[in-house]
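Limitations
The structure tokens in this dataset are predictions for the assembled complex, not deposited experimental models. Users should treat interface geometry with appropriate caution, especially where small molecules or nucleic acid strands are included. An illustrative entry is reproduced here so readers can see what is and is not provided.
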Amino acid sequence: MNNPILVAANLQKSFADLAVVKNVSLSLDEGEFVSLVGKSGSGKTTLLSLLSSLELPTSGTVSLCGKDIIKASESELALFRRANIGFIFQSFHLIPTLTAWENVAAPLFPEPMEQRIRRERAVKLLEEMQLGHRLEHLPSALSGGEKQRVAIARALINNPRIIFADEPTGNLDSQTGQSIMETLHKVNKEQKLTILMVTHDNELAGNADRTLTMQDGVIQ
Amino acid sequence: MQLISVWREIRLRWRRHFTAILGLSIGLCLLLLLNALSNAYKEATKIPLQDVGADISIQRNGDVPEELNGVVFSCSAVTIQHHEIEAIRNMAGVRSVAQAVLLWVFQDDQFAMVLGIEPESTLGPGRLKNYMVEGRYLTNGKEALLDESFAREQGLTVGDSVAVAGQSFSVVGLVAASQAPKMVVAHIYIPLDEAQAMATVSEGVQKVSPFSSQDANVLFLTADQEAIPALSASLSEVMGKDTAISTPDTFLRKLGTMFALSDRFSAAVGLIILVVTFLLVFKTVAGGIHERAREIAVFKCIGWTNGNIRKQIVSETLAQCLLAAAIGTALAVIASWLLSLHTLDIMIPWEMAPTPHFLPGGGEPVFRTVHLPVQLSLPLIGIAFALSLGLGAIISLFCTNRISKIKPSEVLRHE
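Predicted assembly:
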């Protein structure tokens, strides 16, 4: 199988005179679980934001799900992310004023659909994440592991084609982190979802289909 | 947009929104109250004339009687000629005119204020019908109504006769004149044509102010409300300088500082309130967007467009403003009820209730005490809501321009 979902060529990103990402080219196949490792400051988070359309590169091209994201407008990119991409962050980034199910359904809020359908979809995902009993709880009432599972459910609500995970276990203890990794592997296998995971943990990275190592803004 | 998340944003982050909501509520409450208070004073000043069913009263000032003997006119109410009355009746804006003749009658070492009234009129002295305590109301002929206190002093009752300037009148009823409007207080009430005839033959009257049988010396007018100011000016032209034309404005001018404060400065105070509340809401919305930059970035990451986020923030701000308008209106309703318990003494000019100085209380000012009719009108409340929502819409639309500058990658920088 060689069906690329993400193709980046000659990506460069500089902040003032500082080049953070230097001439990176890579390709991810559909359904592939790829980990991106590197030391702190190596440029892996910046690369993730370039590949996921959160930031524009100084030069180079990115084709994601067949779309040239460099040429797209901000509004087009937002709609594109809503349809194709899921994000999981180290600090979860749940909306503190929304309940667990509302956080999961948040990507659907701008969509014209009945609230009942939004809720049904969110509840189904939360139940799959063993959080059926936490639907109406605010993030402040959830543990770290529960918050991250809510975040994973939020990333999956739109049936994305690719998930970008930035240190998804970074704020969790090793046991909870392991559980989260199992969940990610499960969705990768069962839903054939492409996952690009940034981590500094070589052991976690070893469980991926492929590992990319970054150093000083360059993929080794 | 998601109303539930709008509500939860306000409820869970109430500290952030509290100051703006409270400030806006108080601002709107003050705006409503100032306006209602100003209107209340204007309404209150209509009451003395409304008591006699009139919008305008007219009297002409003249000379003091040469002798306090027989039938004379008070210096505050001398002849208004028939042709003047007809001219007034035909003026634009005038709906109806009631005439009266006020006489001071000195006879046998006694004094009586006698008011000649139109028995069929409900306007002006016609309101006396509401103060009958015994007998029946006046009809044309040699009939008289007596003030019940005066009747008691004189030992008269219904069915007796009372002498006025040598003429005998049959007492057909007693009225509680002390409770009646001050402007129509008298001891004896007789039909207008009898009073006119009495004044026509009185030397004391004719010496000071020539009077013919169809003249009067007090007029009560009803008029179109919007025409009253212009009518007042026209009446002054027709009647001349020495005429007391009383309109609600006459009483308004006598109210002094409270009204002046609430009326003159209401626009200035309103503007200040508006600016302060504008800044408060602006600070809250702009501060909120700044504090929620990461949250906004998360929304962008998960696929919300700038328009989606703007809509959400505008909805939140409008909800705040709606809440503030509701609280402000509720506060204003309570405050206006409390203010309506406050009484106001409206001074009735001596000319309009001319009790001679030699009678008890004759030199003292006469007041009409009224409860301030402070009421919030629905259009006013509507304006307050519209103002609040308009303010919220303008501020939130302006502040949400900043949203486009927040990059979704912001969220990763906070990791």
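Some entries come with short summary sentences. For this one: Chain A touches chain B at residues 45, 48-49, 54-55, 74-75, 78-79, 81-83, 85, 87, 89-91, 93, 95-98, 102, 106-107, 109-110, 138, 154, 158, 166-167, 170 (CB under 8 Å).
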